[in-house]
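In the previous chapter we treated chains in isolation. Here, by contrast, the input contains two separate entities that must be folded as one system, with a combined length of 504 residues.
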Amino acid sequence: MNKVKFAAAMSLVDDQYYEEAAAYQRKRRIPVWVRWGALAACLCLVVAGALALPHLIQPNGAEGGGPSNAGGLWGNGTETIGPAHREDFSPEMSQEAVSLFQDIPGVLKVYQTTVDSWFLSDSLTDYSQALTGKAVYIVPNYSEGIDRPPTGPLSYAVYVTGEDGTLTWGGGVSLPEEHSVPYALIGLTDDIILKDLSGIDYEDYIITQSTRLYTVIVWARCADGEDRFVSYSSRPEFLGLVDHVVYTLEELQQRLSNSSVGQSLTDSGDTDGSIGKQPSLGPSLDFSLSLKGTPGSRSPRTSGGTSGPHRRCPPWSR
Amino acid sequence: MLEDERIIDLFFARSEQAIQALDQKYGKVCHRLSYNILNSPEDAEECVSEAYLGVWNAIPPARPNPLQAYICKIVRNISLKCWEHKAAAKRNSVFDVAMQELEDTLSAPDTVESELEARELARIIEDFLEAQTKENRVIFMRRYAYMDSYTDIAARVSLTENNVAVRLNRIRRKMKQYLLERGISV
């Protein structure tokens, strides 16, 4: 059988299937309760954010500051490597996300790593061990939220899922100047990932981020039992990784362990998954991040440093 | 827009308004389908016009129901024939890409199963589709019958392109297994 015969057969498939496919249109209207629920949740978060802000901006080690490697909206970074739980991860967006982002293209569902030194663990046999089950949604072009005007292609918003499943704006990231993409999550699209994975036979892929390594790792789950990984990093030279290249888990672990960041973590004795300090990633990273609930955080970025690129400190590094 | 039955009545009455009404109601769908196969607006226009002529000649006596599937199939067949003629020269339409995805599922031409009638194959595909969820059926049909792009399918079924790509990948695997189980070498 060849593709022409298949195409001919498809022409002979019963009309009912053509009709069904022509008539199908999944309802996209946001339910009223979701709209009002989102509004109520936003109000609650603003209040909660205002109350929590003093704790979030405590410097490392300061009283009330929480773990030094707190990851803010990305997760608290205190978990350790656990048992494999592959079934907890799905590339499909939640119903809430589908409703909320219905008119916005390029939204990515991203899972977070529990700790950024996961690759140093000897007990890691499955990448799911290094991941939290919580996903955030990356919304390109709207760093200030989808209810605000677009902020350009070199920016994105992070939407987090609340306890009740409601998605709310959690922060925004933007590059202050032109930059080649993908740059970690900035400019990353499913098309890029699909192209990079085109040479392998995989079931599906999960987008993950190792926040403090400023690295996106796409986890392609393969039927042959040997998963593959592609990374998109803002600082690949410090991680020993090459963007767009497909690695096995072993190769990924090996490269990260041998990298300057891996060595830095090893030297600090951080092999149990609790990073003691921010690994050195060289020069300051050139993006800005605005935080939910921070007064004035949605205003235009302020200039930082003298060399042009700048970064407003994310909460986990304060 | 006129009801399908009213349009067919116009054909039966040999009214020139029949073509206009048909074009008004289904022209966009037909052009898109043909364009997805041929990747050329001019060729698509030509194929759709040819399809309208085919409908004009077929009605009466035919009284198709549903009309949309009927006209879409005619457009599809004419467009595929046109594509076959131009296949050597062009390899960049959505149809090409969609068919390329099936290369792993389908074997090379001129093998034993080349005797298998397209109609029999269509029946097996129908059985396979029956075993799928409605959403998966729609995704499959939109891709391989209407030749929609991932972007268009994603918009229709409110999924991301990634979701659509993954779903299609799984459906193709299942179909391959389904065909193998029925003795169709793939």
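The radius of gyration of chain B is 18 Å. Chain B is about 70% helix and 0% strand. Compare these points with the single-chain example from earlier in the chapter.
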